[in-house]
Amino acid sequence: MSEQKTAVADPVTGLFCEDGMKPGRIVVPVPDNPDPRRHRYSGDPEDPIRDATPSEIAYADAATATVREQAAFDEFRIIKALALVVADLTGKTPAQMAALVKARYRALG
């Protein structure tokens, strides 16, 4: 006998959550694994999965893009901060350090 599949959902937003249980979330039995982008919790125990509306999908896509952009921005700031620290430690100016980092980057191929 197969084990019943379950998913974690936020009953307020209808979102299926991939990051586990948190306050306010519930565990619901589901017939199949829901796609957090394309599916929402319906609130109906007999038919717990509904298709997301086009606006819900657009919102999810925009939120994902924002998270990716923020992560890339944060990575850039971390690298820049590290370069400035190394410049301070070596007595180089930020311009000299930037030139050195660019030269090393180009050398990577």
Percent of residues in β-strands: 5-15%
What gyration radius follows from the Cα positions, in whole Å?
Answer: 23 Å
Spatial order of strands in the largest sheet: 1-2
Total beta strand runs: 4
Looking at how many chains there are and whether they match, the oligomeric state comes to: single chain
In helices, the fraction of residues equals 40-55%
Could you describe the 3D structure shown?
The chain is an alpha+beta fold and 109 residues long. The protein folds into 2 domains: 1-52, no CATH class; 56-107, no CATH class. It is 47% helix and 13% strand. The chain has helices at residues 54-90, 94-107; strands spanning 6-9, 26-29, 39-41, 49-51. The strands form 2 sheets. The protein has a two-stranded antiparallel ribbon with strand order 1-2. A two-stranded antiparallel ribbon has the order 3-4. A hairpin with a 7-residue loop joins strand 3 and strand 4 (49-51). Helix 1 packs across helix 2.
Could you provide a short overview of the structure?
The chain is α+β, with helices and mostly antiparallel strands and 109 residues long.
Features:
4 strands; alpha+beta; two-stranded antiparallel ribbon; 2 domains; 2 helices
Give the topology, please:
Blueprint: E1 6-9, E2 26-29, E3 39-41, E4 49-51, H1 54-90, H2 94-107
Antiparallel strand pairs: 1-2, 3-4
Helix pairs in contact: 1-2
